Amino acid sequence: MLGSPFRLQAYNIHVNGVLHCQVRYSQLLGLHEQLRKEYGANVVPAFPPKKIFTLTPAEVEQRREQLEKYMQSVYTCLFVLSAGASMGDGGCTKVDRGVL
């Protein structure tokens, strides 16, 4: 829609302080579903829930924080599952907001 007030919310994924990619919530949800199929629901951390209505700026920030914690948990879980991997600092994945 030309002139639509709606903007797509994207999240910038930083790994070790470097911008790795920019993704939408739906793409991260797809990743979550793939990880659940691969590793099982009891191994993969819970994913932040979908919202039906447009998010307020405060809700967007809350979701960003939840997605950052989710990505850090996934990082940690995958390292634990990897044979011979060390835990590292467990906090090298950062998520911030961007707009597509």
From TrEMBL:
GO MF: phosphatidylinositol binding
InterPro entries reported in the protein's UniProt record: PX_dom, PX_dom_sf
UniProt xrefs under Pfam families: PX
Entry-linked SUPFAM superfamilies: PX domain (SSF64268)
Coiled coil segments of this chain: none
GO BP term (any one): endocytic recycling
Top-rank taxon: Eukaryota
Matches recorded under Gene3D superfamilies: Phox-like domain (3.30.1520.10)
Residue ranges constituting the PX domain according to the UniProt record: 1-100
Cellular component, GO annotation: early endosome
Protein name stated in the entry: PX domain-containing protein
Organism: Gopherus agassizii
Upper taxonomic lineage: Eukaryota, Metazoa, Chordata, Craniata, Vertebrata
